[in-house]
Amino acid sequence: MNVDPEQLAREAVDRMLLTGPDIASPRTAGRYVVGMPMWMWVHQSPTTYGPNSASATLAGVTVTADAKVTRIDWTMGDGSHVTCHGPGTRYAASFGKQASPTCGHTYTRTSTARKGGKYLVTAIATWTVDWQVNEGGETGQFTETRQSQAQVAIGEVQVVR
What class, spelled out in words, does domain 5-155 have in CATH? Predict the structure, then answer.
C-alpha cells in the first residue's frame, strides 16, 4: 500500500478541530468612534491560534502535524484590509489614544449607513502546518485558512458647547 504522508498530515489536522480566530477586539458590544485607533487582537488557544499538534497513522506510517497561525487578514467592512502577523496587543486604558503597535485600524466613516448600523468584520487566520513522517522521514508544509466574523458599530463624537 502506498501511503501519501501529506494526506495523513491533513487527517491529523482534521483531528485538531481548528477554527477561525477567537476575536477579542473589536467586540460586537464595544463602542468605537471615527478617528480613534481600534486595537485588534484575538484570544489564543490550541484550536483558535495554536500551536496544536496531532498524528495520524496508516499502514505502519505515522505522520505528526504541527499547526499555528502565522497571519490574520482582517476585512474591516469599510473597504479596508489589515494583515497582522501575530495575535495583536490587548488594549489597556493607559495606552490612551495611541495606535496599536501590532494590529489596528482607524475608521474614517461611521457605520450608520450599513445594514443594522454596523460594519461586518471578517478575520481570516492562515494556519501553517509543518508535518513529518516519524523517525526522521519525509517532511512538508501546507497552509489552511479558517475565518470568524463580528459586527462593529462605529459612531461619531460631537462636542456640545
Answer: mainly beta
